[in-house]
Amino acid sequence: MCSVLQISRSTYYYEAKERQSEDDVTGAVIEIFEQNRSAYGTRKIKVELYKLGFTVSRRRIGRIMKEQGLVSSYTVAQFKPQKTPCNESVQANELKREFQQTEAKKVVVSDLTYVKVKNKWHYVCIFVDLFNREIIGFSTGPKKDASLVARAFSSIQGDLRDIQLFHTDRGSEFKNQLIDETLAVFQIDRSLSMKGCPYDNAVAEATFKIIKTEFVSQMKFDSLEHLTLEFSDYVNWFNKLRIHGTLGYVSPIEYKRSSLKRVV
Question: Where is the Integrase catalytic domain (predicted)?
């Protein structure tokens, strides 16, 4: 019959399926996008839609985003500042780019970046647990110095002796007497990136790119207190709600909980 009627066999066997309401999908896309700081693109929105019971292609999501004027913050060009001169310490790179860790707090990486507050540069320092990419400590301040790093250390909850290795780049903020003494007290080993090699601290660098795109570029800060308050709120969202591709599209806290359940 298909041959006589000159139609394809696939047309005969086609089974119509009820399509999800365009209004429902559009509303869900808008809600997911707005609830996640305008940071999610089609890939992560697809994951979140699936959790809500919608099976939608990235192409369709992209079309809806274009129609609704939803532009991810990742489409904005990023400015890359020049690095300050590094120290000449003979300390080796003990981490050796082993960014996949199986124990919480075993290896912590750190970095800092600049943020403009009322036309003046301020700085943010973060500590990231390689186990689940969680920001376990941070500090803000008007100066890029050792005390900024020390305050980030003091913000970490729990026993600092759980940390076995602390890896950073060769900025003088990380390699100085104050930080040396802190590491010695808590018996934490040190690791430094090779000179002029940002790839040795890739996770910290990538985390700050996320922060610059999703947080810094989206806001204006009136004071250091304003920056600290807003960044604290962002870190809470980053750790508890933001899904991460490297973690199988779950949040850092959810990843830690599921890992503990598997161990038990």
Answer: 99-260
